[in-house]
Fold:
Amino acid sequence: MHGRYLPLDDRSRQLRRAILTALQSTRQGNFVDAFALVEVLRVLYDDVLRYDTHNPDWSERDRCILSTGQGRLALHAVLADKGFFPADELKTSHAGGASSVRKLPGVEAACGSPGHGLSLGVGFALRARLAGTASRVFVILGEDECGLGATWEAAAGAARYGLSNLVAVIDQPRGPAGGGSSSLAEKWASFGFAVREVDGHDVHSLREILAGAPFEACLPGAVVCRTVKGRGVDFAEKNARWHAKSTWTDSDVKSLFSAIEAA
Amino acid sequence: MRKTCLDALVDLARRDERVVLISTDAGAKSLRDFKSDHPWRCYLEGANEQHLVGMAAGLARDGCIVYAHADALARRAYEQIAVDVCHAGVNVRLVGGAGAPAADFALMRALPGMVVLAPADAAEAGRMMHATVDWQGPVYVRLAGGGEPAVTMEHDPFVIGKAVPKREGNDALLLTTGTGLHASLAAADLLEGHGVRTAVLHLPTIKPLDEQAVRSAVNRVAAVVTVEDHSIVGGLGSAVAELLAESELLAGRRFQRIGLPDAVGDRHGVSPEDVASVVLAMLDQDRPGSRHNQNTRAA
Structure:
């Protein structure tokens, strides 16, 4: 049933159900990018980041910026699960729309427009240095953002300032065709980052790597996560038609719910 | 103007530890000195304006007041300014140049919550830097190229959102901003020689516009002209036109924008002679037997 991938555990299923519930209510967006990021985000918020849901602006918190807007439903599902805001918020339209720092507590930056996240992350990391806190900053970047000049301007800056408290987490989907190349890892290394590569759905390995940040003194980190769009829905993992879908019937959503129970 | 402004910023930063400076001008000695004293509060960047603005927005999220200085900010980093600075409502002060064609007022005015400032001379630029420290939200300051004659007085106040009356007169009114003030004062002198008493109201804050001061100055005259070193599209002239139209203050008055024409590559400054001849033509139209039948759109 689950083909070549590890089965999902209860936590991964639960968060996927929350994402589908949001999709069912708002009928906006797509789940495949969110499903690709569930394990990365749950590991960050369950095991790695230091934060206080009752005081989202706590100045010594670790920060997670979701720069790629496409998987935002996964972030919102995790934040609601952690108690930053009531789960019912996921059923309102802005849960599926652009992340807003003003609307949803716990969201660190407006995402959606690509190529902004790493520069903001550099600013956060510099601020932590200036304040003398041990705050770490994780910036989740989409593969497409690694083709944008602004991302590499920021990467050069992060390396120049030796920001070991900054980690770029790159979502590199394998896609229905499979594959994925190591060239992204080489690029980040060539910019002076301490690079790690990991299966983006392997909770154990993700935990080990992400919790180990900072990786090396004076070097910013990069974690290239090989992910699968739509992970957990076997027919969507293999079929790009589901990736472009943006309208959802009740029967579509029902088939998605059934699929994750079997994954 | 740039040197005075950077020196004022360094002075601010030395006195207020919330202030962080980012600049593409590594040549300024005061900045280099400050950086060697406070390496985590001063960043000398290359021409990477998009990153510079995003980084400034990140730094400003937890109580820092960040001055980001780069010549071409308004156009090169527009999206970062809109999303990372304005949407987040952070205390970033963007200190930039006009670019060519000069359209920075138009670009910055269109952003929600952005304050748009244009000093007339170096001294006013320095006063502006101090006035922006405790403002809540983003601010854009346009610096001029350098070598501007001093036209403001030491005792001229600078308050964000307040107009500065520079000259009284009941025949015509020049509304101006930035380096347009120098041309406007010289034009008013020329007009005086023609018997036209010309008021000059300096608007160093383009947004939010001092609407009350503009309305009350306009009410006293028959001819109103805006003078700015900016495209006639979207700058001070447009802001004033919007206000006058919506306040129904245009009836019985002549109104003309003077700035840079809406054309590529045709950039020369606004001269006092241009301004004076436009005002004379406007007033001449009101007289019986006038030779003019339409306004001259100068410079």
About this structure: Chain A touches chain B at residues 59, 100-102, 109-110, 113, 115-116, 118-127, 129-131, 149-150, 153-154, 156-157 (CB under 8 Å).
